[in-house]
Every structure is written in C-alpha cells, then in structure tokens.
Amino acid sequence: MTKDLWRLGEQYAGTPFGPEDCDPDPFVQFRRWFDAAAAAQLPTVNAMTLATVDRRGRPAARIVLLKEVDERGFVFFTNYDSRKGTDLAAHPFAALVLFWEPLHRQIRVEGAIEKVDAAGSDAYFASRPRGSQIGAIASPQSRPIASRAELEQRVAEVERAVGEGAPKRPDSWGGYRVVPDMLELWQGRVSRLHDRVRYRRDGERWILDRLAP
Ligand SMILES: Cc1cc2nc3c(=O)[nH]c(=O)nc-3n(C[C@H](O)[C@H](O)[C@H](O)COP(=O)(O)O)c2cc1C
User: Fold this and answer.
1) CA 65 – ligand 1 centroid, Å
2) Which residues contact 122 (CB under 8 A, 6 or more apart)?
3) HSE (CB half, 13 Å, CA atoms) of 66?
C-alpha cells in the first residue's frame, strides 16, 4: 500500500512567480489569486483548512468556508462552543490553508484570532438560508449525540419555537477573523522547484521574502 502512494503526486508546471510579481499589500495579492481561482470555476473555491491548538498544545484541523476578506483579515463562521471554539478560547491563534489544485497554488495564512462583532455576525446569519439558520441553532456542534433522530428532533423543536418568525442568531454562533501576521503564496513548478513568496507583518508594513521550496 505504502509504495502505491510513492508514485502519486502531480508534476506541477505553473507560471514563474516571485516577490517582484506581488502587490506590496498581501490582501490585494490574495484577492488576485482568489479571483483567478473563482474565474477558473473551481469547486468550493472558498474552502480552507483551519488549524487550531488546544489547551494542551495539541493541533487539530478541519475545513471551513472563507466568507469575508478585507484589510482586517479572513472571516469564517462557526459555533463558538465547538471544539475549534474551545481551542480558540484557549489559544487565540490560527492557521489557514487554501489549495487550488488545478492552478497548482496554495495559500497559507497565520495570525491572531478575534471574534466578529455581533452586528457583523447578525448580518451574515440573516443572509443564510432558513434551513442553515435552524441547523445552526439546533446543532450542539462537536458534542456527542445519541442518534440522527435526536438531531432531527432538535431541529423540529427549534422550528416549532421559531414559528413563522425570522430565526435569531444564537450567542454561541458567529464569526471569527484571522488577523494575519504571515501570508504565503505557493506556486507549483517543475521538479518540485516551486515558487514561494512570504509576507511578514512588520508594524504598518509588510516584508516580502522568497522562500526555498
Ligand atoms: C466543504 C466544507 C465546508 C465547511 N464549512 C464549515 C464552516 O464554514 N463552518 C463550520 O463551523 N464548519 C464547517 N464545516 C464542518 C467542519 O469541517 C467541522 O466538521 C465542524 O466545524 C466541527 O469542527 P470542530 O469539531 O473541530 O469544531 C465544513 C466542512 C466542509 C467539508
């Protein structure tokens, strides 16, 4: 089995990329790459791996969806009482990874975490389909539940309680913003001689380096 995997691995042949091709502002550069991935109609283009660390220093990772990005940072929405929420309460730092295989591109982001303010979380919650709103209220994310039937019963109870009205965002659900102090763009190249550009925050400005692949 192991040796079957040895042969797996694409030969990447992306176009040359270096610090000289980058906007000095990493958010502008991120947007360029994100827009290119969106224009290529890649599936779930805003899916990203979110890594957190728990109280004991153990890392955990899972996929979340990037929902907002501006000069403040990268926003996703979740349950604050979930495992990731507990991790982020203990260690308010996170890492994100986006991978766009057909473009041979990876983006890594690292930084401190802050909660999106209530108005921002309310606005996003209100934009979600009603079923997702009900689900977010009903699901005790990351907790054991006895059965699928228990989950469906919880959903039915929330539907009954909400009635015809607009579901209200629970306090335990909202956005987190990763405020980056590091962002890396990775462009796959032939023979694993990939191009890597790293932005590091230095006060008000950003320092760019090329990193060895
Ligand atoms: C494509 C995809 C998108 C997802 N988006 C989110 C999301 O935006 N927010 C979220 O809380 N969970 C999302 N999930 C589910 C998470 O991966 C994870 O199962 C859940 O958040 C519980 O993680 P935790 O127990 O580590 O807190 C997504 C999963 C997939 C596969």
Assistant:
1) 8
2) 169
3) 23
Q: Of all atoms in ligand 1, which is nearest to the CA of residue 76?
A: 8
- Say what the pTM is: 0.96
- Please indicate whether residue 32 is annotated as part of the active site: no
Ligand 1 midpoint to CA 201 (Å): 28
Give the tens place of pLDDT for each residue, 125-178: 999 999 999 999 999 999 999 999 999 999 999 999 999 999 999 999 999 999
**Which atom of ligand 1 has the smallest separation from the CA of 84?**
27
Which residues, 6+ apart, have CB-to-CB distance to 143 below 8 Å?
none
Ligand 1 neighbours, Cβ below 6 Å, are: 44, 47, 60, 62-65, 76-78, 82-84, 141-142
One-letter amino acid for residue 27 of the chain: F
Cβ atoms of 60 and 137 within 8 Å: the answer is no
- What's the gap between Cα 170 and its chain centre? 21
Q: Interhelix angle for 130-138 vs 148-162, to 10°?
A: 120
Measured CA to CA, the distance from residue 30 to residue 133 in angstroms comes to: 30
